[in-house]
Amino acid sequence: MTRFTQEELEAARDRLVPDVVADGLRVLFCGINPGLMTAATGHHFARPGNRFWPALHRSGFTPRLLLPSEQRELLSYGLGITNVVARATARADELSAEEYREGGRLLALKVARLRPRWLAVVGVTAYRAAFDDRKARVGPQERTIGDTRVWVLPNPSGLNAHWTPTTLAEEFGRLREAATER
Predict the structure, then answer these.
(1) Of these residues, 33, 50, 83, 155, which one is catalytic?
(2) Which range is least confidently modeled, 30-34, 36-40, 125-129, 153-157?
(3) The pLDDT of residue 161 is above 80
(4) Active site residue 160
(5) Which of 5, 71, 87, 181 is least buried, going by the fewest C-beta atoms within 10 A?
(6) Is 44 a known active-site residue?
(7) Which residue among the candidates 44, 50, 83, 155 is catalytic per the annotation?
């Protein structure tokens, strides 16, 4: 893995990272916003210690553990990645309430256009802010966007110690089972 200096990471601030999307996906995963490592590499969930890729594999979404640099392979499994807020920051708490609300509005438009079966937002706090739903909990939501169902997953950041790798994979697995049903 490439090592970046702090200057190189800071230079990635506010960069945009292209979505990995296609029409009619089984699940469109939605992060909060790109971190600086993601922006520096151009690969989603690239920070060492982020448990997104291991949870995806352990839950059965992918047959092997993918590296962030292999993110385009997700499309072959009917999976994709986007973000609530497009700009890269060092921490999610650098985002404003308005950025979350506008991100939710733009995300709803993107989902309506792409029509995935499920939208999976990773991070209940981000979901609550983006969709003004203060009572949302991890799991399936009542809200739909067109025919797209919505599921809130725990944030896979290594900082979210409340969710262990095992419980994180179990929650991803619940979504995988729901996404497999017709």
Answers:
(1) 33
(2) 153-157
(3) no
(4) no
(5) 181
(6) yes
(7) 44
